[in-house]
Amino acid sequence: xxxxxxxxxxxxxxxxxxxxxxxxxxxxxxxxxxxxxxxxxxxxxxxxxxxxxxxxxxxxxxxxxxxxxxxxxxxxxxxxxxxxxxxxxxxxxxxxxxxxxxxxxxxxxxxxxxxxxxxxxxxxxxxxxxxxxxxxxxxxxxxxxxxxxxxxxxxxxxxxxxxxxxxxxxxxxxxxxxxxxxxxxxxxxxxxxxxxxxxxxxxxxx
Length: 206
Known about the structure:
Blueprint: E1 20-22, E2 35-37, H1 48-61, E3 70-75, H2 78-90, E4 93-99, H3 104-112, E5 116-120, H4 132-142, E6 146-148, H5 156-163, H6 165-172, H7 188-205
Parallel strand pairs: 3-4, 3-6, 4-5
Antiparallel strand pairs: 1-2
């Protein structure tokens, strides 16, 4: 990738533009060509870098997030890592509410990235005050100058993939993609990328 041939300003400039690699062995008995989008090539090792950076930069542009503010979020690990990484680069404090189903390694990694981590029980209802959803909301309310990312209900989640992942796949396949297979968590990747690709295909048809 030519963008990595010189000096990069900071690690956030490496978010996105991940490679598309052709699959051979696992698909050898199937018709057609198959490719894998390697989102682990993002600096935070997952597609969550895309949404975290997009949501944070949108908040900065709107003046909602400023120097000295705190970023608060509910996470099972990957988004939290992305937010913690971005917070270090941009100089924000990061507070994360994490389910106790998350591995010790993930929790330790978040802490090593400078995040303040609150571990919450997973076996409670979403509206229970002990759930990681409600804990994050409470921390946001109690923390002056804070921004709650709210990835599960934030439309910018899908928008990040509409603006980046979708166009990348379309360009990398030269507009020849026919099917998209996505593992869904919050649904942002499949909805945002799918929306973009459907629009491009619809334009070609008509």
